[in-house]
Design a protein that fits this description.
single chain; mainly alpha; 2 domains; Amino acid/polyamine transporter I; 434 residues; globular
């Protein structure tokens, strides 16, 4: 029975961490910190719950079930489990997340040098996706290519940025603005929730399991153990990165007052800290961050659809990359406008399915409990999607008065209520009749 060497376990943890850190993860914390001001660490606490806690829990849950969304969602029944799985893979794969890695990395790192024309983006995306394809074609070597090479480079760049944020502060700490004045924890919670890393974790599970198995590990308990260790290493890494980025954004008013987004703050900060080399450093960091995430998403999607359709893995890599290349050239604004409503709809049921997977053994009929709560979460997810698409005025007025509606978490309390009722019914149905 094969075991992973200590070096491979560390590389696996680095790989897991690197898969999560995309451009969005680097951009969110600075703008949260600038707007939260003196309440930054309360906001950071809420942010870390959803941006670190949920993805780590998701990997742990998947490690117990061969890394498969389909297994973890099996109480929903074959059809709905398959539907949720396909939607998750397509959403964080070729439809939205993978194309967005190319578009974001270009707009943040390279547009200042090459302009924003469609032809420049096309040339860049062809080069970018050629590199992604070259690595994705060999998933059994991910531990070598990503875990031992790309991930350490990415971590080194993030460490330089994090150390600079601590040693080279920018200026004064501003008062909080917007909702950070009265509810910094919940506002941070929502911003972490919107990073969508939990959906990413759902598809990365299969990549992590595959990487472990590529070293000849076949024992299911060992696979679970190594995946959990990797998720904890990734969780520690994510926490350190986020804390350093919060520190970076905290005093950023002096270099980027009232910034529109985190990218503006990062550009201003690296220019302040590193001079003219700062922009080149940021371009390299964002490029690495996005490419590793794109590789992980492509491998995960190709692995799943190979299993589902029987088509060759390498053929699917080319199909998925080709589709991502086309979508990426729509531009970032169109991508985000189209993706946010879809992701808002599937995120609540995905969280419910993940969290309840730990409790199946305590219920007599898990399918009834899981299906009822997931159904309610999905219903409210549809409402969130309509709100995100701009149809707020068409929704019934009572929806605006629901608890946590303003935090985009209106699904949470109804789901908990239905969970309590479903568990009670499950318990009562098991009581023998006299």
């Amino acid at each position: 029975m094969n075991h992973l060497r200590t070096g491979d376990i560390i590389a696996l943890g680095f790989m897991t961490f690197a898969l999560f850190i995309g451009a969005g993860n680097i951009i969110f914390p600075p703008i949260v910190a600038q707007q939260a001001g003196e309440h930054v660490w309360l906001a950071a606490f809420g942010f870390l719950i959803t941006a670190v806690g949920l993805p780590v829990i998701t990997i742990m849950a998947l490690s117990r079930m061969q890394g498969s969304i389909e297994v973890i969602s099996s109480p929903l029944g074959r059809f709905f489990s398959l539907l949720l799985t396909i939607v998750c893979y397509l959403s964080v794969g070729p439809l939205f997340a993978t194309p967005r890695t190319a578009t974001v990395s270009y707009e943040i790192g390279f547009a200042p040098y090459f302009g924003t024309s469609n032809s420049s983006l096309l040339i860049y995306s062809v080069i970018y996706f050629t590199l992604v394809t070259a690595i994705s074609l060999y998933p059994n070597k991910l531990l070598d290519t990503v875990g031992h090479v790309l991930a350490p480079l990415k971590i080194a760049a993030l460490a330089i940025l994090g150390i600079a944020a601590i040693l080279i502060p920018t200026g004064y700490i501003s008062p909080p603005i917007h909702k950070y004045v009265t509810s910094p924890v919940s506002e941070g919670f929502v911003n972490g929730y919107l990073t969508m890393d939990t959906l990413g974790a759902l598809v990365f599970g299969i990549v992590i399991i595959q990487a472990i198995q590529s070293r000849g590990v076949t024992d299911s308990k060992l696979i679970t153990k190594y995946a959990i260790i990797a998720s904890l290493i990734a969780g520690v890494g994510l926490t350190l990165v986020y804390i350093s980025l919060f520190k970076l954004g905290l005093g950023s008013h002096e270099v980027a007052a009232n910034a529109a987004n985190g990218a503006v703050i990062l550009h201003a900060y690296v220019q302040h800290a590193f001079g003219d080399l700062g922009s080149l450093f940021l371009a390299g960091l964002i490029f690495l961050a996005c490419m590793v995430t794109a590789i992980g998403l492509t491998c995960a999607c190709a692995e799943y659809f190979t299993e589902l359709t029987g088509l060759p893995y390498k053929l699917l890599v080319f199909i998925l990359i080709g589709f991502s290349l086309l979508i990426s050239n729509l531009g970032l604004t169109k991508l985000i406008a189209f993706s946010v409503p879809v992701l808002s709809a599937i995120y609540p049921p995905a969280i419910v399915v993940i969290m309840m997977s730990f409790f199946w053994k305590y219920w007599n009929k898990p399918s009834i409990v899981v299906s009822s709560v997931t159904g309610v979460a999905f219903l409210f997810g549809i409402i969130e999607a309509l709100k995100a698409a701009g149809f707020t005025e068409q929704l019934p007025q009572f929806i605006n008065n629901l608890p946590l509606n303003e935090q985009n978490l209106a699904w949470l309390l109804p789901s908990l209520v239905v969970l309590v009722i479903a568990i009670a019914v499950d318990r009562l149905s098991s009581v023998p009749k006299n």
